[in-house]
């Protein structure tokens, strides 16, 4: 059911009063069938733009995207999207929100079957008791659970996640990463997720795609995450390679995201929010001589 | 806490009403008879506003309309609520037409920039026209219908005056729909009809109801003017007749009734409005 996806020479240009601005230039990436890829980069580097072009919500300036054997031309329910804010419709209950999409995709199924599909996914994300609650009665984390259920319930060829846990507190974020992994492990839907949390990327992905800074951002480096699945958060964090890989990602964000573009790195300005800025400053200085202990305390 | 609420909601407003009645009483005029030294009597008017009947006098003279509010003695001599009922019926009809016309026009304005460019100027020109100006046109337009001309003219006037808040608020509501909701519709490839009824209408409802409430207020304003002009029986017509008869106490009773009914209609609509605010 799931499919591979190929982004070739994907380019996005916005026309502004000051002339055209190229956000993303010649972005190339192939995601294998059933692979989970995360896209990391600084805020505003264009990673969400790539995702929204894949979702079909943002027109492609040049280049193209092929999903399976079909070139994408617009949005469609063959791609399940989990937005940063869950975007639930407040006048519908949790069940109705999920069923809205299910009704679209499984229009040949009976009404009862479609309701069962929606109920099943809501139960899997842990909302079996809240089927008939409206979004205003649910916590932020529960709403995002509905968002995840809605995307999976479409049985999409591909899953697109746009910083889905960015607005949650860290405990809830851990919980929902677990929920996402549990659902994903069942049928390995090809997935692309945008994040700027390096720990999240390491825990969830098969590969991590690092984007350079914008404008004219492109794929800087790609890191393969070798650990087998299902993964246990604790044991991968204790893995001897974990901090080396984490450090490499942060190093990319702080230095090579700039230098690959011929820009001057400036660490404090560019610190990603997932780790204390002090621990990540690329330029050694007396202030961060305590680097190693700091990193340990993050874990 | 509870008693504070009671004071705020009941005691203070009642006190305010009492105070207003007192002021009314104090400034109103009265007629008193005086015996002159030559033995004849003379009637003189006293008080700050000599021709304003006071609250007690108003009550005395208009009692029969109030204590038997639904009585029908003659066409022009009926209980006050019976008159009000006639007016409410015609307002309801005209208001319904206003909503049925105004809501789709509002949606078109909100959805289509072209429609806005075409018709927004005309709407802005027609909107401030007084009901008193529309009424003669309404009667003339339906003159061919004979007996029904007055009623149809009245409906036309109510509808065309009351529809603008609905039109404008609906349009604002449609334009304010978050892009996020529309993205959901696009990602799921909802059809146009589905998008309209599952996304656009529910998302616009709170704005629509604000429009509906304001429209109802205007419809109720218009009816009084319409009845004065056409002679249709109702509360506005009663007021006008009693003015011609020189019975000022009845005018005051009518004003108070119109005000209370308008207030109750607005309260009822805002309760409805709040129900849809959750959306």
Textual characterization of the structure:
Chain A is an alpha/beta fold. In chain A, the strands form 2 sheets. A 6-stranded mixed sheet of chain A has the order 6-7-8-3-9-10, with helices on both faces. A 4-stranded antiparallel sheet of chain A has the order 2-1-4-5, with helices on one face. Residues 270-299 of chain A have low confidence and may be disordered. Chain A is 35% helix and 21% strand. Helix content of chain B is 76%, strand content 6%. Chain B is mostly helical and 279 residues long. Chain B has a single domain (79-277), classed as Orthogonal Bundle (MetI-like fold). Chain B is built from 10 helices and 4 strands. Chain B has a two-stranded antiparallel ribbon with strand order 1-2. At the A-B interface, α2 of A face α7 and α8 of B.
